[in-house]
Write a structure and sequence with these properties.
With 373 residues, the chain is an alpha+beta fold. The protein contains 12 helices and 17 strands. The strands form 4 sheets. Strands 3-2-1-7-8 form a 5-stranded mixed sheet, sandwiched between helices. The protein has a 5-stranded antiparallel sheet with strand order 15-14-13-16-17.
Length: 373
């Protein structure tokens, strides 16, 4: 940190090129409102849907979801900038047409709030590694592998963690033989859930109850990702556990469990239910799970965090059947982080408030050395 500044300078990066652009903006609104301004100097950087980096006004209201209207980072809202990809220069550079790039300010820590491809998937993390910058969250490998629901399941199965039945439809397989791909899905039984392999926030996901609905669901998922994962429907509750990296050599920490119940008209926990439906959800935290099973979920969540090579934070999502059987659904390395999102809520129930959680994550990033670890 520069001796001329008394606070740690944090670049908060949000928006991005994925279909989760608006949710990233809403996450930034929550973080900008809650971050400890006495401790941190904030530099808000938005990324437009076309990939332009913009120095944004520090305006929480402009980034919030209001009246079901989704926020967006647009060019022209501020100066175009980039983070210098140099181990010796941690500057944010201002780009003016026809002018030499000018250093605006240096950065101590980057707080990425990007969800989905081109941000959560190791791409941004690779840029920050090249720049030798401290940043919140997992590194390149864990970010990339956990973003891909297919490769995620391969890693979990290899680690002996319970994974439900699934099949994968690649772009080439779909274009070569749709019938064979759909036959593979039918072998899972009905219903199934059709998902883009590398998307989040339930974007592009469909519940399919029979073969007549399948092709349309696959085509919809392919709009977000040409690689599609189809999972067998599992009858059970969706229970989630937050994990935080330990400080120093301490072990990772598991939160209280949370459960989101869909009580409205939605057939499953889709994008609209998550972000646009105010009265269709019920959050239970701590979740009503027997103590022994809750302890097992927490322990396995830490096992999954370590098996994936995660750093900083992750939300581990489970299916918990009436018989007590567990299936690991997925890990989110940059989970939803608005004040009402599950990850902050489970940590709040564990005694770590929203502002304190943000501080903990930034300090974890500062402690972690850059480069190979």
């Amino acid at each position: 940190m520069s001796t001329s500044q008394t606070r740690t300078r944090v670049a908060v990066v949000f928006g991005g090129r994925s279909s989760e652009h608006a949710i990233s903006c809403a996450t930034a609104a929550g973080v900008l409102a809650a971050i400890d301004r006495d401790r941190y100097e904030v530099v808000p950087i938005g990324i437009t849907k076309t990939g332009q980096w913009v120095l944004m006004p520090d305006d929480v209201e402009a980034l919030a979801i209001k009246d079901k209207q989704l926020p967006e980072v647009k060019s022209g809202l501020g100066k175009e900038v980039l983070v210098a990809p140099s181990p010796e220069q941690h500057d944010i550079l201002v780009l003016e047409p026809g002018e030499t790039p000018e250093a605006l300010t240096s950065v101590d820590v980057v707080l990425p709030l990007l969800h989905g491809p081109f941000g959560e998937d190791g791409t941004l993390q690779g840029l920050l590694e090249l720049a030798d910058l401290h940043y919140v969250g997992s590194g390149v490998t864990a970010s990339a592998v956990m973003m891909d629901k297919h490769m995620m399941k391969v890693v979990f199965a290899a680690a002996g963690l319970p994974v439900g039945p699934y099949t994968v439809i690649t772009d080439k397989e779909w274009r070569r033989d749709k019938a064979a791909a759909m036959d593979a899905v039918a072998s899972l039984g009905w219903p199934v859930f059709v998902k883009p392999a590398r998307a989040g926030s339930s974007v592009g996901i469909s519940k399919v109850n029979g073969p007549d609905e399948l092709e349309a669901a696959i085509e919809m998922a392919r709009q977000s990702d040409p690689k599609v994962v189809v999972e067998a429907g599992i009858v059970g509750r969706e229970v989630e556990c937050g994990v935080l990296e330990g400080h120093g050599s301490d072990l990772p920490r598991a939160s209280e469990l949370g459960e989101i119940e869909e009580i409205g008209a939605h057939d499953f926990y889709d994008f609209e239910a998550k972000y646009l439906n105010d009265d269709g959800l019920r959050l239970s935290c701590p979740a009503d799970v027997p103590a022994d099973d809750a302890a097992r979920i927490k322990e396995l969540s830490i096992t999954a965090f370590d098996a994936a090579g995660c750093e900083g934070l992750a939300r581990v999502d489970w299916f918990y059947t009436p018989e007590g059987t567990l299936y690991l659904n997925e890990i989110n390395t940059l989970p939803g982080f608005t004040p009402v999102s599950m990850f902050p809520q489970v940590w709040n129930a564990s005694g770590l408030g929203y502002t304190e959680l943000i501080t903990d994550l930034i300090e974890l990033a500062r402690e972690r050395r850059t480069g190979l670890r």
